């Protein structure tokens, strides 16, 4: 599934719908350059999970935990130099739980990711305008077929 958004609110809305539809144990892997909107999608997922806390990127702590309809684990692995570093914090215990996990910069730790996951690629489209983004969503199993219900 691929589409173009032209503002931050639409980027947030993608995440919001994913959060509303997501199930326990879902893992969302976000890939995109700095400033593409990974954290905006995460904020939307949190809101869709009925989380009212302020969502910030856990750049220096690696993971933040939030409570809502389901627990949300929000990872930012941008500063991880070695996948063993994230494995050491008990990464498997987080992502193989009943929580929803969102992993920004997931391409940095590909070898640690579960087989069943949703991969969200976000690319800037400067030729169309400052806030234009192409969002491409891929999923690896039928458990994520609910993504077809997104109304973008």
Explained architecture:
The chain is of the alpha/beta class. The chain has one domain (2-142): Rossmann fold, CATH 3.40.50. It is 23% helix and 25% strand. The protein is built from four helices and seven strands; from the N terminus they run E-H-E-H-E-E-H-H-E-E-E. It has helices spanning 8-21, 38-48, 83-87, 91-95; strands at residues 2-5, 27-32, 63-66, 72-76, 100-104, 118-124, 133-139. A seven-stranded mixed β-sheet has the order 1-7-6-2-5-4-3. Strand 6 (118-124) and strand 7 (133-139) form a beta hairpin. Helix 1 (8-21) crosses helix 2 (38-48). The protein is globular and about 40 Å long.
Structural class label: alpha/beta
Could you list the spans in which at least 5 consecutive residues all have pLDDT below 50?
Answer: none
- Principal-axis shape: globular
Multimerization state:
single chain
Rg for CA atoms: 14 Å
CATH topology: Rossmann fold
In the CATH scheme, the class would be: Alpha Beta
Q: Tell me what the CATH architecture is.
A: 3-Layer(aba) Sandwich
Q: CATH homologous superfamily, by name?
A: P-loop containing nucleotide triphosphate hydrolases
Average of the residue pLDDT scores = 93
Which bin fits the share of residues in helices? 10-25%
Number of helices: 4
SSE string, helix = H, strand = E? EHEHEEHHEEE
Q: Please indicate the percent range of residues in DSSP E strands (runs of 2 or more).
A: 25-35%
The strand order across the widest sheet is 1-7-6-2-5-4-3
Question: Ends: how far apart?
Answer: 11 Å
Please report the total strand number as a whole number. Answer: 7
- How would you characterize the largest beta sheet? 7 strands, mixed
How many separate domains? 1
């Amino acid at each position: 599934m691929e589409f173009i958004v032209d503002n931050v609110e639409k980027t947030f809305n993608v995440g919001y719908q994913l959060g509303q539809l997501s199930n326990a144990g879902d893992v969302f892997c976000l890939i995109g350059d700095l400033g593409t909107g990974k954290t905006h999608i995460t904020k939307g997922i949190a809101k869709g999970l009925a989380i009212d806390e302020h969502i910030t990127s856990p750049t220096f702590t690696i993971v933040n935990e939030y409570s809502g309809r389901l627990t949300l684990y929000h990872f930012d692995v941008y500063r991880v130099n070695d996948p063993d570093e994230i494995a050491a914090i008990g990464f498997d215990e987080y992502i193989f739980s009943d929580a929803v996990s969102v992993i920004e910069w997931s391409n940095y730790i590909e070898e640690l990711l579960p087989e069943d996951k949703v991969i969200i690629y976000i690319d800037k489209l400067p030729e169309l305008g400052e806030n234009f983004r192409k969002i491409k969503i891929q999923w690896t199993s039928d458990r994520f077929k609910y993504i077809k219900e997104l109304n973008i």
